[in-house]
Hints:
By secondary structure, chain A is mainly α. Chain A has a single domain, classed as MetI-like fold. Helix content of chain A is 76%, strand content 0%. Chain A is globular, with a radius of gyration of 23 Å. By secondary structure, chain B is an alpha/beta fold. In chain B, a hairpin with a 2-residue loop joins strand 9 (216-217) and strand 10. Chain B has 2 domains: 19-139 and 307-361, 3-Layer(aba) Sandwich (D-Maltodextrin-Binding Protein, domain 2); 142-305 and 389-421, 3-Layer(aba) Sandwich (D-Maltodextrin-Binding Protein, domain 2), CATH 3.40.190. Chain B has helices at residues 2-21, 36-51, 67-78, 93-99, 107-113, 122-127, 150-155, 171-183, 197-209, 226-242, 252-260, 274-282, 322-337, 352-355, 358-361, 366-369, 390-403, 409-421; strands at 25-31, 56-62, 85-89, 129-130, 133-134, 137-138, 140-149, 188-191, 216-217, 220-221, 264-270, 289-292, 303-306, 308-311, 348-349, 376-377. Chains A and B meet through helix 11 of A and helix 3, helix 4, helix 9, helix 11 and helix 17 of B. Chain B: This is Multiple sugar transport system substrate-binding protein. Chain B: Belongs to the bacterial solute-binding protein 1 family. Chain B: GO terms for molecular function: maltose binding. Chain B: Residues 1-21 form the signal peptide.
Amino acid sequence: xxxxxxxxxxxxxxxxxxxxxxxxxxxxxxxxxxxxxxxxxxxxxxxxxxxxxxxxxxxxxxxxxxxxxxxxxxxxxxxxxxxxxxxxxxxxxxxxxxxxxxxxxxxxxxxxxxxxxxxxxxxxxxxxxxxxxxxxxxxxxxxxxxxxxxxxxxxxxxxxxxxxxxxxxxxxxxxxxxxxxxxxxxxxxxxxxxxxxxxxxxxxxxxxxxxxxxxxxxxxxxxxxxxxxxxxxxxxxxxxxxxxxxxxxxxxxxxxxxxxxxxxxxxxxxxxxxxxxxxxxxxx
Amino acid sequence: xxxxxxxxxxxxxxxxxxxxxxxxxxxxxxxxxxxxxxxxxxxxxxxxxxxxxxxxxxxxxxxxxxxxxxxxxxxxxxxxxxxxxxxxxxxxxxxxxxxxxxxxxxxxxxxxxxxxxxxxxxxxxxxxxxxxxxxxxxxxxxxxxxxxxxxxxxxxxxxxxxxxxxxxxxxxxxxxxxxxxxxxxxxxxxxxxxxxxxxxxxxxxxxxxxxxxxxxxxxxxxxxxxxxxxxxxxxxxxxxxxxxxxxxxxxxxxxxxxxxxxxxxxxxxxxxxxxxxxxxxxxxxxxxxxxxxxxxxxxxxxxxxxxxxxxxxxxxxxxxxxxxxxxxxxxxxxxxxxxxxxxxxxxxxxxxxxxxxxxxxxxxxxxxxxxxxxxxxxxxxxxxxxxxxxxxxxxxxxxxxxxxxxxxxxxxxxxxxxxxxxx
Lengths: 284, 423
C-alpha cells in the first residue's frame, strides 16, 4: 500500500529530475549542440574550464554574490523578525505584511522598480545624489557597484520569507524561559545571546542553508540587470550555462559547467548544514 | 496532467475541424515587433486578413525581442511547436541554419511568390543566403541614422541651406558642430546609448566600415590592422565623452527621452524610431526634426544595417501541409508587395519595386537617408554574430566602460580581441 501511494511521486520525480540529471552528466562528455545529440569527447569540456576566462569570472562572481547575500541576508531577516515579534496585534500583522510584500513580486517587476530608481539619467535616487551634491553613480554599469547592488536588491526582495521562518522559530520558544531569564535579572543582550540565539539556531541553520542554495543558483536578477550593460563582467555560473547553451549553441560545454555547479551546491550546502549543526550543538 | 493533455488535443482537433470546414488556412505567426513598427505590422496583418477573408487568416503573436524570442524559437522548433512563419533577423540566420531550425526557401517557392534575386539589393540577398541557398525572405533593412533637432541646430546656425547639419563630411567638421552646440548651451549635443554596448555595436561597426575594417577574416577576429580600426572608432567616441559632447551611461529609452525632450540636440538611433517622431510631431508634441545618413568620420560613408526577414521554421516531426505552405508563401509575397506601408515604420523595404516607386521617393524622412543603402554593411556571417549573440556580449562588456571614459580604447581592443578569439 505504501509503495502504491508513493509511486506517483517517485515516477514523476524520476521523470523530471533523475532522468534529466543523468542525461546532463552524459551530455557533459559530448560536443552536443543545444538540440540533439553529439559525439563523445571524454573530459575535454572539463579540461577547458581552468583555462576559460569567462568560467573564472562566473565562479568568482557566484561566490562573491553568496558572500554578499547569505550571511547578511540571514542576519537582516533575524533582526527584523525580532523587531516584529515585539509588536502587538494588528500593527504586527501590518508591519509583517509590509516586509513580506516584496517577496510576492515577480523578478521582472523587482527589476523594473530598481532600474527606474537607479537609472543614471532619470532615476529618483540620482536626484537625491544631485541634491546631496554627490556625483551620480552608474550603479548597474560599473563592475564595482553591480554585485553589491544586485545583492542589496536580492535581500530586499527575499527577506520576507526568511522573516516568516524566524518569526515561527521565535514563537516556538516557550515564554517560561524568558520569564525565568528575567527573574534571574538577565539584561536584553544576555537574554538574546544566551536564550534566543541558541534556541533559534536550528532555524538559522535552515534559513542560511536555503539562502545558500538559492544564491548559488542566482541567475534572474543578474541577467536582467546586465541587459545591454557589461554581461561578461557580471557573469555568474547559471548565466554562463545559459550563454553556452542558448547563445553559443554548445550543449555539451554548458552541461559541464552545470555539473560543476551541481557538485558545488551539494558540497557547500552539506558542509554548511553540518557545520551550523555542529557549532550549534556545542553551544548547547 | 494527462487530462489536460487530452483536453488540449481535443481543442486542437476541434479547431482543425472548424478551419477545414471553412476551407480556410490559419497561419500561425510570431514576431518580435513591439514598438511603433509593431503597430504598423498589426495594421498590415489586418489588411491582409481582410483581403483574404475566407481563405487565409494570420493568427499573430508578438514575443519579446532578442534573446527571449530566439531561445523560444530554437526550443519550440526542436519539439515541433514552432509557428508557420516568423520574423527573423538576417544576422541570426547562420546560427539558425547550423541548428537546422529554418526551412529552405526553394527556387520553386520564389517562383510561386513571384519574387527573386533581382528584386533585392545584393547585400540584402547575400544576407539571407547560406551556401547558395536562401533561408528567408527579406522584408526590410534597418540601419542606424542621425536624428537631429532642426529648431536647436537652426538657432545655432548649424544647418546648411538644405536643412541638414553642418560638418557631416569629416571628424573635425562633426566635432566642431558638436562643440558649437555645447557652446550654445545645449546639455547634450549628441544623445548616445552609452549604457548599452549591444546597441553601440551598430555605431561602432559603422565607423569601422568607414575605414574598410572587418570583424572576421576567415575564422579569425580582428586580424591585422582591423584591431587598430576598432580602436580608432572607440577613440572618437571616447573623445566626445571626455569633452562632454555626448550623454554618458544613458540606456536606450533614456536616449530617446533626452532627444524628444530637447535636452539632446542629435541622436544616433535606428530608423525604427521614425514612427515615434512622426506620431509625436503629428500631435504637435515635437519640434521640427530630420534624419540623415551617419556623418563620415573616417574615409567614406558606411552604415551598419540588419534586415528583418520572414522565415519558415523547420518543425521537427511535423511536416507542413501543401495548403498551409502555399498560404505562408502568399503571406510573404503579399506583405513584400505591400511593404510601402512598412516604410512608414522607418525601415527601408527590401523589395526593390517598392523602393523604386515614386510614392516611396516622395516619403520623408526616408528619402533623405535612403541614399545609405549603397553603403550598407551587415554582420559577419557567423553563428556567433547577430543581435543578442555571443559577439554582442563580448563587445558590450568592453564598449560600456570605454565609451564612458573608464577604460582606454587600446586596452578594450586587446581584451575584445582575446575574448572573441576565445569564443
